[in-house]
What does this fold into?
Amino acid sequence: MAGRRARTGRGWDASPPRSGDATTPRPRRGRRARDEQADPETPPAPPRDEAEVAREICLRQLAVRPRTRAELAGALTKRGISEEVAAQVLDRYDEVGIIDDAAFARAWVSSRHMGRGLARRALANELRQRGVDGDVASEALGELSEETEAETARALVDRKLRTARGEPDAVFRRLVGMLARKGYPPGVAIRAVKDALAAQSAEAAEFAEQIDADALADAEGELERDGRGTH
It folds into this structure.
């Protein structure tokens, strides 16, 4: 029987590749290594100007929504911008009208009252949290009249009454509490709910007739003042 011919190729008996063989793998170089070899003396990028960084931070914040000066100052502080540079950038933005706390306050009051039904007391608290000056906030809140506030309160109650369930007294308490959380004074809240109940049904109207809105509002006001005095 003829002997088997020797196996060749890349099997178990393949010979190791010779030096310089085309099949010998070569070490791969990354782009960074090639760039460094091509220009090993490339200087590092210079540090960025702090004011430029501050402006970029402000513009990113303003791209999301309008901001008050205090909000932007807080964002700059968190990013490590010095007070001096932050003041320079914010002063410049004030000059060119990019920052306008008065316009911000007016837009905030209009939007939050129309969209969420918030009353002046709740709106004043939100503006204070955003660093709006008290006088600026008062001027913006002055554009929301008592008549508009009362009309909005009644509209909120009418909308809630469409799905309200339970006895009139329980519904009354829930709706007054809802308006109170939105910042409506006791008198406005109680009158809005009483009038809405009176127009809903005979049973609700009978209950509403028994409500002394003025006396109840005075009592609620006393409770609020006592509560604030204990803090």
About this structure: The chain has a mean pLDDT of 82. Residues 213-229 form the longest helix (17 residues). DSSP finds twelve helices and no strands in the chain. The radius of gyration is 36 Å.
